[in-house]
Amino acid sequence: MVLTGPVTHQELATRSSIGFYLFVPPGTNEDLLRAAGFDVRAVQDVTANAAEVALRWHDARARHREALVAREGEANFDGLQRFLSCTHTLSVERRLSRYAYLAEKPA
User: Is the whole-model pTM more than 0.85?
Assistant: First the structure.
């Protein structure tokens, strides 16, 4: 995750609540790839995809709330919904971005 705007500590906590995430400033991923001996060939901003997937997943889960709460429990259901909502908001507002990298290790 690339920090591309202001993000509160609560938003970072929510955004990382389902696993390990590393939040870095712009350029860090490219620097790390180069330091590992890779040539960065292309960088594609895929933040809009992350926003769309988070919103669609959130809304689909909301439509099936009753069944999911029965399976996951209310606390887990609500926690994942908060995560997805936060992911969508941070992505749409361009405060947290996602990039895909094409890198090649020279022979």
Answer: yes
